[in-house]
Amino acid sequence: MTRLTGNTDLSKSLASSPNAVILETQGLTRYFGKAVAVKDLSITVQQGEVFGLLGPNGAGKSTAMKMLTTLLPLSAGRATIAGYDVTHQAAAVRRLFGYVPQALSADGSLTGYENLLIFAKLYDIPVKHRQRRIREVLDFMGLQAAAHRLVRNYSGGMIRKLEIAQSIMHQPKILFLDEPTVGLDPIARTQVWQLVQQLRADYGTTIFLTTHFLEEADSLCSRVTIMQQGQVVITGEPSDLKASLGKPNATLDDVFIHYTGDQLTSGVNYRDTARTRRTSQRLG
């Protein structure tokens, strides 16, 4: 991996105000008909932290992320990113974040380079800077040798790296990752973890991720919010949440069971299982 050309203005901002709030929600709510997918979600995310939204499939994690990334309208409540309202200032908000969804976001019929070129154009990166920026993200992700191969021939881990590369082309202030390691083998999962940690450590990028892998959250996240049935159960640092149980060697699994009275794997229906398996298949 090589270093990306940093956003010096952002770096200075992070250095001078490390505890500044970059994302805030107040009473964020989403209905689908009469069903409540997310109810009264109120959280704050600090600049430069890795924040995890945890819970089983169907807890409302992906729905919350889609609202924050302007893909779903809010039924009620308010959300801001870097002070911009996601409903009333959506165009400005979209320039501030990168987003890697669960669904495939790379075109398998194109090469890695061609996929990145499309995103460079979508993000309005000036023509004179595009080639340099593409080289930088390819180097950072370790995809230089595969740049001109068709993405359909990539491994699952390589596809996920390319999708992250696409999402950071414009040097976003916050990166949204929806279940970033689902369907990946242990080696590829570890590589994604390392990339997330390096983005935060080297560039101060704020990471907002959803996952139902509690080991992943414990390793990556500075703070987590546990959701169940669309509502917040508890928020805190993983170490504090484990310590709150008052028993040695407590895990986040123990925390989840204690505060929700449920196993993380429960409540997974046929649709959720099918979606996870489709994701696993397309990532190899």
TrEMBL record:
Keywords: ATP-binding, Nucleotide-binding. PROSITE patterns: ABC_TRANSPORTER_1 (PS00211), ABC_TRANSPORTER_2 (PS50893). One of its GO terms (molecular function) is ATP binding. The keyword Transferase does not apply. Pfam families: ABC_tran (PF00005). InterPro entries: AAA+_ATPase, ABC_transporter-like_ATP-bd, ABC_transporter-like_CS, P-loop_NTPase. Residues 23-254 form the ABC transporter domain. SMART domains: AAA (SM00382). This is ATP-binding cassette domain-containing protein. It comes from Trichormus variabilis N2B.
